[in-house]
Design brief:
single chain, 105 residues, mainly alpha
Length: 105
């Protein structure tokens, strides 16, 4: 019993981290930077009077929004294709009910 507890404790040190988690953390950081940039450009677009500069800012905003959508889509695809060991271990067992006894008197 003691050996089993020790082994269970030590197994945690040898498990590999999920590469999708690292990828998603980096992608979230990139998406937050894109979001900050988009907010700055929206403010700049509201304050700009020159029509040519407004057009350029609008195009940059469209590109940023498309990049954000693509990044979120990639994160979702990585989550779906993840083969985490935790997902494999989850087993739903049906609840068993006691047998029904019919007594005829």
């Amino acid at each position: 019993m003691i050996h089993k507890k020790i082994l269970n404790y030590l197994i945690e040190f040898f498990k590999k981290t999920d590469p999708n988690k690292k990828y998603n953390d980096k992608m979230k950081k990139i998406l937050s930077k894109l979001n900050d940039r988009a907010l700055k450009l929206e403010v700049q677009l509201e304050n700009e009077n020159n029509e040519e500069k407004r057009k350029n800012i609008y195009i940059m905003l469209k590109v940023i929004y498309k990049q954000q959508a693509k990044g979120e889509k990639l994160m979702q695809e990585r989550e779906r294709s993840s083969h985490s060991s935790r997902k494999d271990k989850i087993v739903i067992k049906p609840a068993l009910c006691p047998p029904i006894r019919l007594e005829i008197t």
